[in-house]
């Protein structure tokens, strides 16, 4: 089985104290640590598991700057066999439709039985790239997979709907599937593992080589302007202050009273 | 180009509330955008689902075909593409749901239309759409102004827009579709309820709920000790269930359970929208997080900004005292 998996590098922001640049165009990136998009990590794991079980090869693809190579090395360390890097600063600021156009060009007609990627990215969270790529390649697809089973004639995908409801759909192969978090338990990647794949070749593409010079980046995007700000938070919450003991005593009192405990 | 097209959603024989929210957003924008607001309802028997729209949507198109009983993009796409091309609306609005997330990029891709997803606010100014949405897990807000385009596809976050009020009496235009040709044989098989319940967290009066900040399965006994001291039930946010630290049936949020306990204690939960939607109806919410700007504090009534591992043992002792 030939599998392609898309992986994006994103800043780790769950615990980070985010600041906005003065011009409102971006978050301050200096102190941020970068990692693989959580959803894509599940997709890479699923791709490698399918290969281990059914044979074949996995290609991991990213679009990003020089640093984004870390995501590809990580993928190779997890068990991917080949890596493709759409590596050009010109790509930055592209909208998902442009990103997909660049991916299609870089793939240049190569065929895969299955394409996997995360449902969305932890940074922009647009949830567009996977389904747009399926549409561009003319592939059947299913989004939000929390289960993936290879069966006679294709796949059975369990999709996560709202309110504890799931849906099963049958897909023929080749197909594209976007992966929801929790699909599997991704393997641990050690520094040693990444060192071992240091020498593996990565296929690189820039905008010019793909005949896309001047057709990518912010100018080609559907956006005229983008402005970031910090949302109002804490407006609703009374922040308890004082010593740890005093804060906890107060909180315990509130819980007892509001919870109807004596 | 003028007018707004709303794409309705239904499941298990019911029109979904998110449809009325999308319609509410459309009606609010309509005076600025101009043209009519039309809702497209695709189903095997759309008449049976249309009641809430018959008093709310100025225009209503009922598209009937046996294959539209359950959502399947292979049949929804060709049907909708025809509607969009025929009407040429300025905006196409869909809920940002498991259906909208599956359908909107395919529709936009197929017709080569710009798409902006998961929006919380929309403004229309002189032919340009500005959309407000949250990024980085709800920590940052972005305001996007789109270049003028004939038609823009937009998906809307659940709960962000007020449902459409009653007050119109449309004349529905019913169309029985005959030749809906799927591109691929994606097939709907069945719907099923998720996870078997070990405990019904929706029935609990007090929930002690843990998030990513709990760090690992090994730290769960700290939270369990507080729950035991309060006679409370342990619940969690998505990352905890994804990691297998607690069963999926303990997950609070849009894809898990919606809870409304007397007291909800959020420990190390940043409070992404999907979580908030499942717990903001709680009577009292107390959040513990070391990040003072964690989105959870915007829905909490009381907050403790500190390290959860310092707070937990002290709070448990205070409850027992």
Give a written overview of the molecule.
- The complex is a heterodimer of chains A (262) and B (321).
- Chain A has a single domain (2-220), classed as Rossmann fold, CATH 3.40.50.620.
- Chain A has 6 helices and 13 strands.
- In chain A, strand 8 (154-160) and strand 9 (165-171) form a beta hairpin.
- By secondary structure, chain A is of the alpha/beta class.
- Chain A starts with a strand and ends with a helix.
- In chain A, the strands form 2 sheets. Chain A has a 9-stranded mixed sheet, sandwiched between helices. A two-stranded antiparallel ribbon of chain A has the order 2-3.
- Chain A is globular, with a radius of gyration of 22 Å.
- Helices cover 26% and strands 27% of the residues of chain A.
- Chain B is an alpha/beta fold and 321 residues long.
- Chain B folds into 2 domains: 4-176, Rossmann fold; 201-320, Rossmann fold, CATH 3.40.50.
- Chain B is 26% helix and 28% strand.
- Chain B has 8 helices and 17 strands.
- Chain B has helices at residues 17-33, 51-54, 73-87, 100-111, 220-230, 238-242, 273-279, 308-320; strands at residues 4-7, 10-11, 14-15, 37-43, 59-64, 91-95, 115-125, 128-135, 140-146, 152-156, 173-176, 187-193, 206-210, 233-236, 263-267, 284-288, 302-304.
- In chain B, the strands form 3 sheets. Chain B has a 9-stranded mixed sheet with strand order 9-8-7-10-6-1-4-5-11, with helices on both faces. Chain B has a 5-stranded parallel sheet with strand order 14-13-15-16-17. A two-stranded antiparallel ribbon of chain B has the order 2-3.
- In chain B, helix 3 (73-87) crosses helix 4 and helix 5 (220-230) runs parallel beside helix 8 (308-320).
- The longest helix of chain B has 17 residues, at 17-33.
- Chain B is elongated, with a radius of gyration of 22 Å.
- Chain B starts with a strand and ends with a helix.
- Classes of the chains: A alpha/beta (262), B alpha/beta (321).
- Chains A and B meet through helix 3, helix 4, strand 7, strand 8 and strand 9 of A and helix 4, strand 7, strand 8, strand 9 and strand 12 of B.
């Amino acid at each position: 089985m030939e599998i392609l998996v898309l992986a994006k590098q994103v800043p780790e922001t769950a615990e980070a104290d985010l600041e906005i640049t003065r011009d409102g165009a971006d978050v301050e990136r200096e102190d941020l640590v970068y990692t693989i998009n959580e959803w894509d990590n599940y997709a890479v794991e699923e791709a490698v598991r399918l290969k281990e079980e059914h044979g074949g090869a996995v290609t991991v693809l990213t679009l990003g700057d020089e640093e984004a190579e870390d995501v590809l090395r990580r993928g190779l360390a997890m068990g991917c066999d080949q890596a493709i890097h759409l590596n050009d600063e010109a790509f930055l600021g592209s909208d998902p439709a442009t990103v997909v156009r660049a991916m299609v060009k870089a793939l240049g007609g190569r065929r895969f039985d299955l394409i996997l990627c995360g449902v969305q990215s932890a940074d922009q969270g647009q949830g567009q790239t996977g389904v747009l790529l399926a549409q561009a390649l003319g592939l059947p697809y299913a989004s939000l997979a929390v289960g993936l089973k290879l069966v006679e004639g294709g796949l059975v995908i369990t999709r996560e709907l709202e309110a504890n409801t799931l849906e099963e759909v049958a897909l023929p192969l080749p197909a594209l599937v976007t992966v929801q978090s929790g699909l599997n338990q991704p393997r641990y990647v050690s520094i040693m593992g990444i060192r071992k794949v240091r020498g593996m070749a990565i296929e690189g593409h820039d905008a010019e080589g793909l005949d896309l010079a001047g057709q990518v980046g912010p100018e080609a995007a559907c956006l005229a302007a983008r402005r970031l700000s910090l949302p109002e938070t804490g407006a609703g919450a009374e922040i308890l202050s004082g010593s740890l003991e005093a804060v906890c005593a107060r909180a315990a009192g509130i819980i007892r009273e509001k919870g109807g405990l004596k | 180009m003028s007018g707004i097209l709303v794409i309705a959603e239904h499941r298990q024989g019911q029109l979904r509330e998110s449809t009325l929210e999308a319609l509410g957003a459309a009606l609010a924008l309509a005076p600025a955008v101009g043209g009519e607001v039309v809702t497209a309802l695709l189903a095997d028997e759309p008449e049976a689902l249309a009641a809430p729209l018959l008093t709310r949507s100025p225009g209503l198109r009922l598209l009937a075909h046996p294959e539209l009983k359950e959502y399947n993009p292979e049949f929804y796409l060709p049907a909708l593409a025809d509607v969009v091309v025929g009407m040429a609306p300025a905006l196409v609005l869909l809920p940002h749901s498991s259906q909208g997330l599956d359908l909107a990029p395919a529709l936009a891709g197929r017709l080569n239309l710009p798409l902006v997803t998961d929006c919380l606010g929309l403004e229309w100014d002189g032919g340009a759409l500005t959309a407000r949405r949250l990024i980085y897990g709800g920590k940052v807000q972005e305001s996007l102004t789109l270049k003028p385009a004939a038609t823009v596809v937009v998906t809307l976050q659940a709960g962000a827009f007020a449902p459409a009020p009653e007050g119109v009496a449309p004349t529905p235009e019913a169309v029985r579709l005959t030749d809906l040709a799927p591109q691929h044989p994606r097939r709907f098989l069945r719907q099923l309820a998720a996870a078997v319940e070990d405990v019904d967290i929706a029935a609990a009066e007090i929930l002690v709920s843990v998030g990513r900040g709990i760090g690992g399965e090994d730290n769960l006994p700290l939270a369990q000790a507080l729950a035991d001291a309060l006679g409370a039930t342990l619940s969690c946010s998505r990352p905890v269930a994804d990691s297998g630290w607690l069963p999926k049936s303990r997950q609070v949020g849009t894809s898990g359970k919606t809870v409304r306990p007397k007291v909800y204690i959020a420990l190390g939960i940043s409070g992404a929208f999907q979580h908030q939607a499942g717990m903001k109806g709680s009577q009292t919410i107390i959040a513990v997080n070391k990040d003072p700007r964690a989105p959870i504090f915007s829905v909490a009534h009381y907050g403790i900004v500190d390290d959860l591992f310092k707070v937990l043992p002290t709070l448990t002792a205070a409850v027992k005292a």
